[in-house]
Amino acid sequence: MTSERSIRGHCLCEGIQFEVSDLEGPLELCHCSRCRRGSGAAFVAGIWLKSENLRWLRGRELIKSYAAPILKAPPPYRRHFCGTCGSPVPNPDPDFHMIEVPAGLLEEDPGLRPAHHLLFGPKAPWWEIRDGLP
Questions:
Q1: Distances from the Cα of 98 to the Cαs of 26, 68, 94, 128, in angstroms?
Q2: Residues 4, 10, 15, CA angle at the centre, nearest 5°?
Q3: If you count Cβ atoms within 10 Å of the first and of the last residue's Cβ in the chain, which end, N or C, has fewer?
Q4: Distance of CA 101 to the CA centre of its chain
Q5: How many helices (H) and strands (E) does the chain have?
Q6: How far is CA 130 from CA 51, 62, 134, in A?
Q7: pLDDT at site 50
């Protein structure tokens, strides 16, 4: 499903605000250990979109990044967050063709539902996947 409308999103302190459009997805749930540690949750819910479909409204200068070293093999892990409140935020680098938007930052229903689970082998042992998604 594609969302034709624009949806606003922001971090916890609202210092970083943005707008997304043409949300095609997918909305993925990643259970890898790095996503779990970076979010403090059982998984990260992220929506992929073309970078030209994200418009920064304010606070882009507040974004900080952390690039974890490659453990055994690529890809590297990079996370972007608000330097004030620590909320995860989209990648601010315009050179990336596709970016992931943390679904929890959006103010409205994006019209997408989780498509699948990623890297559920190392999932949190206290979390059971019961939704039947691949």
A1: 12, 20, 9, 30
A2: 140
A3: C
A4: 4
A5: 1, 9
A6: 32, 38, 11
A7: 94
Beta bridge partners of 9: 18, 106
Residue 70: half-sphere exposure toward Cβ, Cα within 13 Å: 5
Element (H or E) spanning 63, and its range? strand 63-68
| Greatest extent of the chain over all pairs of C-alpha atoms, in Å | 41
**Contact of 121 with 127, CB cutoff 8 Å:** no
Of 6-10, 37-41, 50-54, 71-75, least confident by mean pLDDT is 71-75
* pLDDT one-digit tens code per residue, 7-27: 999 999 999 999 999 988 899
Rounded-to-integer distance, Cα 29 and Cα 43, Å: 6
Where residue 131 falls (left for φ over 0; alpha for ψ -120 to 50; beta otherwise) is: alpha
Check: CB of residue 49 under 8 Å from CB of residue 11: no
Bridge partners (DSSP) of residue 17 are 10, 58
**17, amino acid identity:** Q
> Which pLDDT does position 1 carry in this prediction?
43
